[in-house]
Amino acid sequence: MSRCPRWCFAILGALLVVPHFSAQAGEGEPESRPRVELSIRSWMFTSGEMQWSHNASRLDPTLGNPTSKLTFKDNNTHIVELEGKVHLTRRWYLQGDFGISVDFDRGTLIDDDYLAGQRLFSRTSSSITGTGTWYVNGNVGYRALEFPNARGYLNMFGGFRYWRTTYEATGFDRLVCDSTVISCTPQSSTALAITNTTHWITPIQIGIDTDYRLTKRFSVGLKASFSPVSVVYNTDVHHLRSDLQQNPSFSMWGVGVGASAEPTVKFMLTQRFALTGGYRVWWNRIYTGTWESHPVGSASLTAPLSSLQTIRHGPTVGLTAFF
């Protein structure tokens, strides 16, 4: 048997070294993986509702619990969203998005007032005529898992959210009125009635963002988050009540929880552009809070805030570019 020449050993050595460097390269950032992702998205035909109530029976035992309940409902609006994601390394990334409503003139406000024993003595209905909602999210993410055969990934993230919504209700119609308790005139009005502004400040949200490829171009995913602590500041201005201050008439602070979920689908148009779609739900609710009234000419009054909840949901569609 002839002996292997020196160049044979050189080739054998190279074959042993190449897999070692290939493995190391696999641990770094793949050349085909984009470093930046930019998205424009539409949260279409979203349906929103905000409800709050308070318990003033401790201040006046003739009042009910809850004493008053306001529900802003059937607020359908269209939201435009911009999102950016920057991959710092193979596993770590930064993500942020900003969304703002482009129309906000639909919905109804129902204002209920109760006496002890939950006797409804007043109910009015007003039309929501403005003004809008906007939000910003910022997250740090980590790729915790990559599925076999480059099928997809599971990311974990943490960050913050600020979400502000302002409702403007115009006019009212009296649906229920007990004349032995309050004056029932006028029966209706077309003037600006109530302006409500809600600020949800979520300093901590944790979640997952996953994508699984079913075919070469089509994939499904899920983005979901949970916030164990979410702080709310809510104000009401009652424009038709001369006995209340106008900046604001009522104010509320509360602490609660929040959650969001969005199952998604993605279709790759090209290597650098993808169409996305999904259905998104955002929800926040307090578990404790304080309501404060600001009358004219006297000191403010405080009472427990019984409930305050915000929910918005609707389909999403968007376009993502990869660079």
Question: How would you characterize this protein structure?
Answer:
The protein is mainly beta. The chain has one domain: Lipocalin. The chain has one helix at residues 6-27, and strands at residues 36-54, 63-87, 92-103, 108-115, 119-146, 152-177, 188-213, 218-238, 250-268, 273-293, 301-322. Strands 1, 2, 3, 4, 5, 6, 7, 8, 9, 10 and 11 form an eleven-stranded antiparallel sheet that branches. The longest helix is centred in the first third of the chain and has 22 residues, at 6-27.
Short description:
This protein has one helix at 6-27; strands at residues 36-54, 63-87, 92-103, 108-115, 119-146, 152-177, 188-213, 218-238, 250-268, 273-293, 301-322.
Query: Whole-number radius of gyration?
Result: 28 Å
Poorly predicted regions are 1-31
| CATH superfamily annotation | OMPT-like
Q: Helical content, roughly?
A: under 10%
| SSE class | mainly beta
